[in-house]
Amino acid sequence: MELLMAGVIVAAVIFAGSNGFHDAALTIGNAVVGRALSPKWALGLAVVFNFIGALLGEGIAIVVANQIIRFSGMSTDIILTCILIAFVSATIWSLFTYYLALPVSSTHCLIGGLLGAGLILGFTFDSLEFFDSVILPLLISPVLGFFLAWGLTLLLSKIFASTPSKPLFRGARMVDSVLTASLSLVHGIQDAQKTAALVMVAILAVDTMPHSELAVVEISWPVRITIALALALGTGLSGWRVVRTLSVRMARLDPVKSAAADATASVLMYAAALIMRVPVSLTFVLGSAILGTQYAGRQGHPRARYFIPMFAGWLLTIPAAALLAVTIGVIVIAAGQ
Fold it and tell me: Please, which residues have CB within 8 angstroms of residue 120's CB and are 6 or more apart in sequence?
């Protein structure tokens, strides 16, 4: 049991690091492309605010740990094995898609891993809660991101139609530098909670009697700090492959459109984290917001050969991570017999 628990903690730290490595540069990509911030300053800002955000809030963690997946009634070893398999499969898919320069959701990597592990190890899921907290946000958030960014860009283009480009772009860059910090903060709030929630489930499974009712009521500070440090470290090591897909290849962004996309993503992410308390992907929201800016005001340059594979990656993430988890689970079960 001790070895399994250690494996869960190590896997959680690696997943949180890969999460920061894969996703965090997205929070600063538009600002860097729009020349609001230099890459060095933007990355430093992301590291700091991702760390701070990872220490805040726990509403999403409670939903993930207590309402979507039913861990109660299972043996401690099975619970730990399920969580370990989920982290491993989610990390593999996250790094694989990073290699392909495809923006995917680390949230849905983890959800898919849990689904696959639960399927092979006999866990049950609250199907209604899963639909309300995972599937609906998956479907609705990109649509909202697209139309809100489209509307905001159209509004800004009308308000500032007579403003010369130079002062307009200078002001937009100043706004976008603030929005970069805001996005990094909410990325930490959203993404760290799910990882921390599963670590807390593992700790409770070890500390309580087998087959007992498990209920996560708070995230301990040692867990918060550990996951926050891993997320911040991954952010600091973050590469630019996915950023180039979203902010350079998929669309052509000027500073106003960069700020509009970042503002839209920031509002939706905070609403999901603090009001609705549902896990929402920054990748989904920001990617669709960037596309929305391309169809408003001065015509943009969306490139289908980049955003069509991106949508395919979004749709495949949950089933692909689940299939990976099933495969790993079958190997684990066969090795234990």
Answer: 85, 325, 326, 329, 330, 333
Beta bridge partners of 69: 125
- 135-322-239-44 Cα dihedral, nearest 10 degrees: 60
Contact 307, 318 (CB under 8 A): no
Nearest to 93 by CA among 109, 81, 116, 114: 109
What are phi and psi for residue 69, nearest 5 degrees?
-110, 135
Q: How many CA atoms lie within 13 A of 38 on its CB side?
A: 2
Question: Is the pTM for the entire model greater than 0.90?
Answer: no
Would you call 1 exposed, middle or buried from its count of C-beta atoms within 10 A (0-12, 13-18, 19+)?
Answer: exposed
Encode the chain (337 residues) as per-residue pLDDT tens digits: 788 999 999 999 999 999 888 876 678 888 888 888 888 888 888 899 999 988 886 666 667 666 667 666 678 888 899 999 999 999 999 889 888 878 888 888 988 998 898 888 877 777 777 788 778 888 899 999 999 999 999 999 889 888 898 999 999 999 999 999 999 999 888 888 888 888 988 888 887 766 555 666 678 889 999 999 999 998 888 766 766 676 666 777 889 999 999 999 999 999 988 888 887 888 889 888 988 888 876 665 666 666 777 778 878 898 999 999 999 999 988 886 6
Burial zone of 167 (CB within 10 Å; 0-12 exposed, 13-18 middle, 19+ buried): exposed
158: tokens are 């009308």
SS3 69: strand
Tokens of 258: 């960069």
**Residue 36 backbone zone (phi > 0: left; psi -120 to 50: alpha; other: beta):** alpha
CA-CA-CA-CA dihedral for 33, 184, 298, 251, to nearest 10: 60
The helix (H) or strand (E) run that includes residue 222 is: helix 221-236
Q: Where are the beta strands (DSSP E) in the chain?
A: 69-70, 124-125
- Other Cβ atoms less than 10 A from the Cβ of 335: the count is 7
Task: Using DSSP, state whether 220 is helix, strand or coil.
Answer: coil
Whole-Å CA distances, 192 to 72, 243, 250, 273: 23, 21, 28, 11
